Amino acid sequence: DVEKFILQNIGAGNPTRLTPDDFTPRSKRVLDTAFQLARGMLHSFVDTEHILMALLQEGDSYAVKFVNSMGIDENQLFEEIVASVGRGNAKPNETGRRGKNGKSKTPTLDEFGKDLTAIAKEGKIDPVIGREEEIQRVIQILSRRTKNNPCLIGEPGVGKTAIAEGLALKIVRDEVPELLAGKKIVALDLTSMVAGTKYRGDFEERIKKAMDEVRNAKDVILFIDEVHTIMGAGAAEGATDAANILKPALARGEIQVIGATTIDEYRKNIEKDAALERRFQPVTVGEPTEDEAIEILKGIRDKYEAHHKVKISDDAIVNAVKMSSRYIADRFLPDKAIDLIDEAASRVRLKAYTVPDNLKEMEKELKSLEEEKASAVRAQDFEQAAIIRDKENTLKTLLDEEKEKWKNLSSHQVKEISTEDIASVVSSWTGIPATQLTKEEAERLLNMEKLLHERIVGQDKAVSGVARAIRRGRAGLKNPKRPIGSFIFLGPTGVGKTELCKTLAETMFGDEEAIIKLDMSEYMEKHT
Predict the structure, then answer these.
(1) Dihedral (C-alpha) 419, 21, 158, 424: value to the nearest 10 degrees?
(2) Computed over its alpha carbons, how large is the radius of gyration of the chain?
(3) pTM score above 0.90
(4) Of 395, 413, 435, which closes a domain?
(5) CB under 8 Å to 487, separation ≥6 — which residues?
(6) 104 by DSSP, 3-state: which?
(7) 461: enclosing H helix or E strand
(8) What is the CATH number of the domain that holds 173?
(9) Taking 80 as the threshold, does the pLDDT of residue 92 lie above it?
(10) Is 145 helix (H, G, I), strand (E, B) or coil?
(11) Residue 528 burial (CB < 10 Å; 0-12/13-18/19+)?
(12) How many domains does the chain have?
């Protein structure tokens, strides 16, 4: 009966082969939910019942409407599936860290840490792309006999934490040497360890317990993000800080720690303590190139599509990387490009789910009719109140129909992020007009003289010289170790020397203030 009902409503399709690119953001989300449900029920694989349960959890999906149209309550059906399928016998992720009596072997680490390998098993870690060299270096350091503690050093946002997550993924997939097979990476939260320590010695006791648990477990690698915070952590008057407690164990290789910190913090905090510095082996994590950043974004695209229920095109990814590199200079790839994509997707989704103006007008009119009806009842004009009530009922029915149409349209239309959406987000961050961002750079470079002459009258030689130098630079026909060009504009006061610089800044970056101006006349005045 169900099959007939489906064929009547939807019809039969043609046999086809689907690739991962053919899946819509919503279908990816459903499969991800099915995976989580299977894990939660301790089943070792995802089956059709898990997909059905995931579909029933999508409140506005066609599956729920279809089930309701047959007179079945989706919540009741969900409960019946759970009851009939039951729980599996797959081992939960934490069994390895529990003793024979069921109690955890590492209660302190469970309280103050986060098991990255367990999270990786659950599929909650984004894929790590293009960091094979750094991960391999970390594995080499961890495989040493002593001083086997890597410290990831790099600018904020280049992906230091992602390398630790990438190592956790490799351990889960069994792509590591035998020495590291079966190990767990636990991210230690020092802030939580310090928080709530009322009396002297509480913090030291927590650290000591955690270290003892790591020693006894023999399969735990600690990951400390912002590792510079161990310097002085918990060091009240007369107390010992975390760094000095950890030093002996780090040197002897009793415990293994992966640290992560920025270049400035490493220089400021770790390097000044030579004893701590020699216990850590630095691994420099550089900013990826634009091409590498594009590959990284393509690798994590599925996760963002499933979350935002939008389509992210290759063009949007390329433009996000290029625009973030050019216009957001104070941050680093791939973090700034990921943030751009994330916010643009959020923006597109919110636009799609905003109630249309005609529905808002109808709701306003309905509210007005309700007030008129109440006013007529108060005036005891029941005939008029009955007329208004009929109008109100008609409008309510129409409003419900229009809302249903809008919801169906929204759920079936998959929105796609465009270059304009990326440009709008960059514009809101930087203040540079969006139209300026989306204008093709090639067109801007070709018409550089014309654009400069919109504000500069005459001065053909100066304008032409500057435009030629910029075109050469953008085409790559220059020495990378030298600037695009050095110019000295000579001329009497008021002919447009400074104006040409401002116009150039506006043409290139959309803002005439995007220029560093040193007024040498100020250096001559004693009072400045």
Answers:
(1) 20
(2) 31
(3) no
(4) 435
(5) 462, 465, 466, 469
(6) strand
(7) helix 460-475
(8) 3.40.50.300
(9) no
(10) coil
(11) exposed
(12) 4
